[in-house]
Amino acid sequence: MGAKEAFAVDINLEGTIAGFTIDNNNVQHGFIRSPWGAFTSFDAPGAGTAAGEGTMVTLESGLNVQGETIGWSVVAPSTAHGFVRERNGVITLFDPPGSVFTVPGAINPEGLIVGGAYDANFVLHGFVRNTNGAITTFDVPGAGSTPMSGEGTLALGVSVFGLSTGYWVDSSMIGHGFVRHPNGAILKFDAPGAGAVSGSFQGTVPQGMNFWGEIVGMLWIRRASLTASSESPDGCRINAGLRLLRKSLTSLKGK
Question: Model's pTM, two decimal places?
């Protein structure tokens, strides 16, 4: 492909692979590899051409079964637009209201997209982009809003039913998980044993959601065997499907 580096970051049920490359000038470009091995490189409209700019494909949840690919186009330092690329190659750019750096986090089989949007103060807000292109932004109650701090809300997974998950960072720099119902109701949760040391990013960090609404992620904890300044991530699987969803979504629907 003529690239210095290549990263395959997602594969769908039919065997199509999505990823991105980095060229000799450190510019990123998206690519699709068909099930029979054909490569197609692409750039989002207006993508920057300086080092560190270009077209980035969302890791792990950026390609659905319909062949739609999502990611973001870095057009300048600290400025990026979200995009969705159809199977036929048509690319649509989008940004939630007020976003200066849009980061799509996941797309479901129906084409519903969730992610995060940094505002002008670089506070992160969650968003849902419906299949008709309408975008709704949201903040988990309690999420921090300190400028340039990394606080806020980020969605990284979405089920076929429109449930979304991700994490929110409070003003103490502690991460917590959430599940958001399509009606906007939000359930917060923390994984057992997740760290909660104020001022040091610890806590619960969901990374994705499957068809049934089961969530996978990390919990950041402080271990006594490590130095006082060290942290360690542990993997966790939180069953937000069948049992938890039956219980929690009953209350979510009623809000």
Answer: 0.87
